[in-house]
Every structure is written in structure tokens, then in C-alpha cells.
Amino acid sequence: MLTPPIPDDEAKRLALLKACKIIYTPAEEAFDDIARLAAQLCGTEIALITLVDSDYQWFKARVGVEQVGTPRDLSFCGHCINHHHPLVVPDTHADPRFADNPLVTGEPYLRSYAGVPLLVEAGSSVGALSVADRKPMQLSEKQISSLELLARQISRELRLRRDLDRAGANVSGEDFPVAPGAIIGRRWQVTKLLGKGGTGAVFEARDPDGERVAVKVLLPEWKASEQVVERFAREARVLMRLRTRHVGKLFEVGNLGSREGGLPFLVLELLEGSDLENILRSSGRIAIHDAFSWGADACQGVAEAHDLGVVHRDLKPSNVFLASGGGERVIKVIDFGIAAGDPGIGSRSNLTANESLMGSPAYMAPEQMMASADVDARTDIWSMGVTLYELITGSLPFHGNSELELFANAMTKEPIPLRNHLANPSQPVEAVLQKCLRRARDHRFDSMSALASALRAAIA
């Protein structure tokens, strides 16, 4: 038996593990669900989520074994974390590292093993997601890829826990280069700040004729991020091509002057009214007729984007706006900032396979949770289904106190029945939502136009 090697970054790795504040904590259902899903996908008896401390490996979740951990000297995962890529051992009896390991020669009699390291930071593994069996096994490339995707979700959750205490600590104290009175694009004078998001700030501005617009400016700290700047540019290219009244309009694209850092900006339609999240928050829930009617209009807007090969990837109540003006109310879908696909280059997807997880977890389809680039029109249909469910019930179809728990529930459980929230929901309403929320995307509506028609028929 060969003792697991010590990684070169051992001190950093242990500091990361400590910062995640998860080792030796009580069991959590979300982690247990991920372990069960790993065992199910790989057809194995045993699955573990293992965290490797300085001298002990501890199981945050376990399926098929009684132990809660083992000495690090016996750790299969100790070998896995050193290599930073999947470790597959089809037959432990044939591998000198493990043939005489007490976990092989005695309980639980491991005859095969496959593990994927949990990378909280590039190159630093705090543990592994593993499957094992009491007989030799051969995993397919697809099964190993599935383990890697599940491990990515666990790593994301660990990063969130590590960063929890840092929330708000990275707010820049520097003055933003745009303030009331500034002139943008030689025409638009900024009047006030409307809000600040993760990558951009939005201002109200007006021209000499009094026309009011919203100006979205990239935050300075993101200027050096090629990926973020590209997403900003992609949003402009998407909006330039859309003509539907159900998407917020784009008027101008440009860059601030060199004195303001050359930051890119978008001049957008200024919407008066409220997004559906605020309406839901004030009312508790929205009448089915209104919710489905508004949803059908939103579907029309997104359908035009889909025709251009663009997937929104972030449909949710806060990105559907009920605009008022000119004596009528119009639904507008907003924020194509993380859309997939690029009509400017005639491509259905301009994403790399390793792009980080994009979207809002509560509204993300299973395939989007597994890989942000693996999306199509039916991914947005799932998100619209979650949005509509929340609008009419005031609750989400899948509960979770963390992103990992939401992920686990969406991947392993059925949506909470409407009857838990509504008295005698109509069969057509229930059928539409159920079809939106099918885990297999082939079983959902095949287009936003089809969903729009079904929504209107359900309330006819």
C-alpha cells in the first residue's frame, strides 16, 4: 500500500478547507442527495463526498458505508486530490497503491474506485466526490463526465460558503467615473443612479429634447475581464437584432472617454412600471389569468431571440417588466447580459465548455445546472415554468436553503404539487406547468411559441 502523497499546495489547501467551514459539520440532505445521485448515475453501491484534513478523511455524505471517515493514510481520495483530475481504479486488486489497503482487504472491501477532486480554487483540492464498488467496474466517459459536473456543483457550494463572510468586503471605495451631470455619448446627460448590479451600474439620463433613457455602464473592476466584457458586448449585439415590443429596446452602444476609463456602455429604453418580482412581493401571489397572460407575452419576446439562436439563460420575475406608459401596459423581457449565442457572428453558441455556472440557481434547468453552455430554447422554457409557478403560488417549485440543495432537489425530486398552494387548481394550468418542468428537456414544450399558445389556451 502506498501512502497518499502530500500535495505541493498542502498549506493553501488546508487553509481553503478551513475557510469553507464545513468539515466535521452535521449531515445535510443536499449533500446526501448528490451522493445518492452519483451512485445512481454510475450504478455503484458506494458514493462519498470526502473532505481531506491534515491526517483524516471525513465523509460529508456517504452511501453504502457505515464509516464516517478514515485515517488519511488509507485515503483513496488522498491520491485523487494530488492529481487534480479524475482518478479511476477499475480493480484495486491489480493496483499496487491499493491492493493491500485495509479498506480493500477488509470492510467495506473496495474492489473499485473513481473520484473527482473538489477544486475550490484552481489547483487546490479540499476533497473529492467518489463512487466505489465491491466488485470491479468500468465507468463510461459519460459517467465520469457526470461525476465531474456533480463535483463542480459541490465545489461551487464550498466556494459560496468560503466567501460568505467576505460579502460586501470587496466594494470599491473609488469614485465611479460616471455621476449626475456627466455626458455620455455626447448626447445623454446623467440625472441619477438607478441601481448597481454584479457587473454594471444603471443610470437615468436625458437628451437636450428631454427624452429619458437608461444607461448601463460596466463597473471598472470588470474591465480587465475578457469574458465579462464579451458578455456586455454580446448583450448589445442581441438587442440590436430584436424588434419585438416585448423586449426592452437598445438605442446606442459606445465607450466612455479615456478620462472615464473607456468603459463600455449601453443606452436602453427607460421603463416605467415594475418588474414582476416587486409586484409579487407586494401582492403575495398573482392571479393566474394575469400571470399566464403576462407570461405568454414574455414568451413572444424570448421566441424572437430564440429564432436568432440566442438563449436568455436568466428568465425570472425580476427580468420580466410590466411597463406602463402611453395608456397601456406592456410586458418587456430585460437583461440579456448572460445570454448564450451570438447573432452578430451567426453562431448558436459562442460559449466555451469551461464557462462558469451562469444564471440564477432557483430558475435554472437541470442541464444548465450541470453545464452553462449546454442550453437551448427548452432551457428558457424551464425557467419560465419556474417563474409562472412562483407568480401564481408565491413559492418556488423546488425548495432549498442553499444553491446545492436547490440543485439536488431539482435533479432528484418532482415539483411541489400546485394543490399544496392553491385550492383546486385547474387541470390545464397544472398541465402547462408540469410540462415546462420536465427534467428531460425533450419532454418540455419544444418552443416558446408553443408555450405561449398553451398559456393562452389555459386561461381562455
TrEMBL record:
Gene3D superfamilies: 3.30.450.40, Phosphorylase Kinase, domain 1 (3.30.200.20), Transferase(Phosphotransferase) domain 1 (1.10.510.10). It comes from the Bacteria. The keyword Transferase applies. The keyword Metal-binding does not apply. Keywords: ATP-binding, Kinase, Nucleotide-binding, Transferase. Pfam families: GAF, Pkinase. Residues 188-459 form the Protein kinase domain. One of its GO terms (molecular function) is kinase activity. ATP binds at K216. This is Protein kinase.
